[in-house]
Amino acid sequence: LDYYVEPVCHPATGQVFGVGSCWQKVFNFLGSAAVPPKASAVAIPSYLKDGFSAASNVNGFNVAIKRSHVPFLLPYATLKPGMSQWISQAAHMCIVSSCMPNTVAFIPLIYAKNRKHREYLKTGYIIENIHEVF
Is the pLDDT of residue 16 over 80? Predict the structure, then answer.
């Protein structure tokens, strides 16, 4: 998780995830049987989702990767000087989309904000550089 990520809880989360702070509700979900067994990762979506849903890729600022899937995604992509930081995340999205499609489960009724998001260098964010990172 990005350092500045802040979860935002829908009022109904108390009934679904129990009492406590919004972060506590995130951890309650992560430790529950509600996490699909075949999920490769669990993410807090960037906007509110009412029910359960899954995707093949997600913004990396708010995702928890299952321990069993970490070897597929680490070590993190090494970039040449001046390459966009988006390329390393794009490489991860290609791996998950190709090898683990629709396995990123979103936490329902909670979304994330990153109030201190900074703009990343976008120079060289092209498919040839993404392929090179692989």
Answer: yes
Name the token pair of 79.
């970039």
Residue 20: predicted pLDDT = 94
- Does position 24 have pLDDT exceeding 90, yes or no? yes
- C-alpha 9/C-alpha 121 separation (Å) is 31
Q: Give me the long-range contacts of 77-80 (CB less than 8 A, separation at least 24).
A: 77/133, 78/133, 79/133
Residue 82: count other Cβ atoms within 10 Å of its Cβ.
Answer: 8
Q: Is the pLDDT of residue 120 over 70?
A: no
Question: Got the DSSP string for 17-62?
Answer: H-SS-HHHHHHHHHTSTTS-TT-SEEE--SS--SS--EES---GGG
